[in-house]
Design brief:
A hairpin with a 3-residue loop joins strand 4 and strand 5. The N and C termini lie far apart (66 Å). This protein has three helices and seven strands. The longest helix has 31 residues. The protein is an alpha+beta fold.
Length: 139
């Protein structure tokens, strides 16, 4: 917030995030889409395993509404933890894509019949076994 003569720095509080799988479950249960992020100030009550939170949601773009709901503590994380989890998930996905591409290239290079892109890994491994080869090759 700034005024004509002074500048007041905003107080930074860490935002909290609802885990993706729980957020999707919340969306599926109702006909509204709650916001995935919330502030510590929106926490009403905390117990040993859960917290009562006042969440905001957009009702079909008409108006912003509020509702109270219980969230398990295990389904809430800080924004930094959320970003780290998303990066780790992206890395796991890319590693899986790389190993799949290596398997597919190896199978094609060794003349395994019927191997094509977008086959399941298990199917490619079965075709390699049918061809009498082993992957990864022992050296």
């Amino acid at each position: 917030m700034t005024t004509k003569n002074t500048e007041i720095a905003a107080i930074e509080t860490p935002r909290l995030v609802i885990k993706d799988w729980f957020f999707r479950e919340m969306e599926a249960k109702g006909n509204f889409s709650p916001l995935q992020y919330f502030e510590e100030a929106q926490i009403i009550r905390v117990t040993e395993k859960a917290m009562l939170v006042m969440l905001e949601y957009d009702c079909h773009g008409i108006a912003e509404k509020h509702f109270e709901t219980w969230l398990p503590k295990s389904c809430v994380m800080t924004e930094d933890e959320y970003k780290a989890e998303r990066e780790a998930e992206k890395d796991r996905y890319l590693n899986g894509c790389e190993s799949y591409a290596e398997l597919l290239a190896w199978a094609k290079a060794n003349g395994v019949k019927g191997v094509r892109n977008k086959m399941r890994r298990e199917t490619i491994m079965a075709k390699i076994k049918e061809a009498g080869l082993t992957y990864p090759p022992t050296q």
